[in-house]
Amino acid sequence: MSGSRLVRMLPARPLVSGLTVAIGVIIAVALATAVASISSVLITVFLGLFLALGLDPAVGALERRGIRRGWGITIVAVSFLILVVVIALSIVPATIRQFAHLVEAAPEAFEAIQASDWFIQVESALGIDLSAAVVEGLRSVTNLSNFLAVSGGVLRAGFGIVGGLSSAVMIVVLTLYFVSSMPMMKAALTNLRPAYHRAQFASLLDQITTSVGRVVAGGITLSTFNAVMVFVLQLAIGSAIPVLLGIVAFFVTLVPMIGSLVFLVIGSVSALFVSPWAAGVFLIGYFVYIQFEAYFLTPRIMGRAVALPAVLVITGAMIGAALMGLLGALVAIPITASVLIILREVVIPRQDARTTAPEE
Fold first, then answer.
1. Of 110, 153, 349, 358, most Cβ neighbours within 10 A?
2. What's the gap between Cα 55 and its chain centre?
3. Quick one: where is this thing mainly located (predicted)?
4. Are 81 and 172 in contact (CB under 8 A)?
């Protein structure tokens, strides 16, 4: 009996079966290597699609006001291009100037911090020479040989800058293309399904794209408010780099819930270079804004998107950040929203329809 069972478990042609499995493993490894080699291209394409989904609700809003989709796409595309040009011509030069000023003023600011009473008290409380540790760290970072070793040389750094600029241009072009071709893309995906599933699939796809678009647009709007608030607070306390910190706040706070708390620490530490009182003012002011954002802005801006439990937002952001960094943390929220829509519209109705136990 056990011998016949063993015969049934073994493949009829073990050599062919083993060779097939080996070929499958080789193909899987080759595909993984190919995906890794074109990861930068995939990220560029995905970012373009990500931004296009964020712009699509604006096109839909114009359509509901009686404007034809073609004109709506044109208005949104021109507005998007104007915004990109304004950022490139105004914010980027100011950021470069403030970054250069930060590098030049850092030694003097650090000496002022070393001479302050609170720094001396912290050193005595910890029992270590903080000044020597920080100076050694700065010397290691700013050492030319170390910089060249980390960056791979001036030539590689130059190629990185050129590649970043070309990627930014490609993201803008892909965003405009995806916005204009969104209906065709959804129709093509729908046609891949069997005819009897197309109506349900089209409805589900519309819900997912609309929800993801609202999540993306809402997240960008909230991050913009965050950046403006940080700029105002840093300007009020006399910071020399308010624009730079505002841009950092924009990208950090794109990650919901976690991002604001992370920048609360970043902004407070940067304000210490002005004075301890300035750091306290920023800490209290930005903390009050976080509460205002959580209880007033977020429900109104994100209210029409899929309501995500806080635990799912934090878990998804942490998993995405561990896998793909900041991009993964951003993508995790829309993906979580899409999964919840599929569970709500497909899985749960199917389970509700099963009112009797299967026959054994």
1. 110
2. 16
3. membrane
4. yes
13: left (phi over 0), alpha (psi -120 to 50) or beta: beta
φ/ψ region of 152 (left if φ > 0, alpha if ψ in -120 to 50, else beta) reads left
Band of residue 126 on the pLDDT scale cut at 50, 70, 90: low
- φ, ψ for residue 307 (rounded to 5)? -75, 115
Which residue, among 104, 130, 127, has the nearest Cα to 116 in the 3D structure?
A: 130
Written as one string, the DSSP assignment of 129-198 is -HHHHHHHHHHHHH-HHHHHHHHT-HHHHHHHHHHHHHHHHHHHHHHHHHHHHHHHHHHHHHHTS-HHHH
pLDDT at 153: 47
**pTM for this prediction:** 0.66
Residue recorded with tokens 């915004």: 83
In whole angstroms, give the CA distance from residue 357 to residue 360: 9
Q: What is the dihedral of CA 217, 256, 321, 137, to 10 degrees?
A: 120
Q: Of 53-67, 114-128, 344-358, which one has max mean pLDDT?
A: 53-67
Residue type, 260: S
Residue 348's contacts (CB-CB under 8 Å, 6 or more residues apart) are none
Helices within the chain (DSSP H only): 2-9, 14-37, 39-64, 69-86, 92-115, 117-126, 130-142, 144-151, 154-191, 195-236, 242-252, 258-271, 276-292, 298-301, 310-342, 348-353
Instruction: Give residue-wise pLDDT tens across range 113-125.
Output: 666 666 676 667 7
Residues 234, 271 contacting (CB under 8 angstroms): yes
Which tokens hold the place of 267? 């902004």
More confident residue, 66 or 139: 66
